[in-house]
UniProtKB/TrEMBL annotation:
The keyword ATP-binding does not apply. The keyword Isomerase applies. Residues 58-304 form the Xylose isomerase-like TIM barrel domain. One of its GO terms (molecular function) is isomerase activity. The lineage of its organism: Bacteria, Pseudomonadati, Bacteroidota, Chitinophagia, Chitinophagales. This is Sugar phosphate isomerase/epimerase.
Length: 307
């Protein structure tokens, strides 16, 4: 049975308990060169990463990938590896991990102390150890988006997390799904509230082109509405699904250039006016192909488009 990324994220956010405390004086030495970063979200090859993370990363490196984005930080480990161990694995393959997905929940901020929990602070430190530039939260709990005041209150925590990340030389970001475009509070779409109430200097937005499509979100329109706000992007294409799609609607992702989204037009605009410097390929459904074969085709498409 296909596990949607939405369910994966929700389940993972409840299991991120416990931490591995490491020295806090490790240098953050990741260097970003060139006009943009091209990478793969490892959720695209989640089953392969579950059974053989080292072998899967080698296959991706052999394909020509230079950057990957994680979606598995649990109990202080990345795909079962301690931060320094995983960094050593990546370094040995010539891979970098400029960004990663880790859900920041309301429980990660102690209101009584007006401070983040030690667990969340360690999350930032582990990201720094790995060489990340971005710590991206890819989910917003349903309880935090039921009324306007609760949402705005938590978005202030987003801004505070941006300040926390900056102290470690990192940036905090948010990644959308579909509900941000599907639902409104006080007459405004949730996504508009998020963009209005987060400080661009503290919180970057990672725009997922595919997640929002079934809810009416269109990449070209959003980029034009909020130029300069999307430092990172999940590059996806979509087709009509034969069953229930990844967001519970009628669409699912497919190989870039094979679907109905004007992907090249969107990413070109994002590079021109969207402020986008990180383009992360993600494909969650495969139409009978293997995930690794799809990852290879996706990379070829991006290279053909000049990325």
């Amino acid at each position: 049975m296909k596990l949607s990324r939405r369910k994966f994220i929700k389940n993972s956010s409840f299991t991120m308990a416990g931490t591995m405390f490491l020295p806090k004086d490790i240098l953050h030495s990741f260097s970003f060169k060139g006009s943009h970063i091209l990478g793969l979200q490892l959720y695209s090859v989640r089953d392969d990463m579950k059974t053989d993370p080292a072998g899967t990363l080698k296959k991706l490196a052999d394909m020509g990938y230079k950057n990957v984005e994680h979606a598995n930080y649990i109990n202080g480990k990345f795909y079962g590896y301690a931060p320094l161990e995983f960094k050593k694995l990546l370094d040995g393959l010539g891979l970098k991990m400029p960004s990663g997905h880790t859900v920041m929940n309301a429980s990660d901020y102690d209101v009584s102390k007006n401070d983040f929990t030690d667990k969340w602070k360690q999350t930032i430190e582990d990201a720094k150890t790995l060489g990340q530039k971005y710590v991206i939260s890819p989910w917003l709990d349903e309880n935090l988006r039921k009324n306007y005041d609760d949402l705005v209150g938590f978005l202030d925590v987003f801004n505070k997390c941006g300040e926390l990340c900056q102290k470690s030389g990192l940036k905090f970001g948010y990644h959308n799904h579909d509900f941000e475009f599907r639902y409104s509070l006080n007459g405004k779409k949730i996504y508009d509230i998020i963009l209005e109430k987060t400080d661009p200097k503290l919180v970057i937005q990672q725009l997922d082109l595919g997640n929002m499509y079934g809810a009416g979100g269109r990449g070209l329109d959003v980029i034009k509405q909020y130029p300069g706000r999307f430092e990172s992007m999940h590059v996806k294409d979509e087709i009509k699904s034969s069953g229930k799609g990844e967001m519970g609607d009628e669409y699912e992702s497919t190989v870039l250039g094979k679907g109905i989204l004007p992907v090249k037009e969107v990413i070109d605009l994002a590079k021109k006016i969207g402020g986008t410097t990180e383009f992360i390929i993600e494909q969650e459904s495969y139409q009978g192909k293997t995930p690794l074969d799809c990852a290879k085709e996706d990379l070829a498409a991006m290279k053909k488009w000049g990325y």
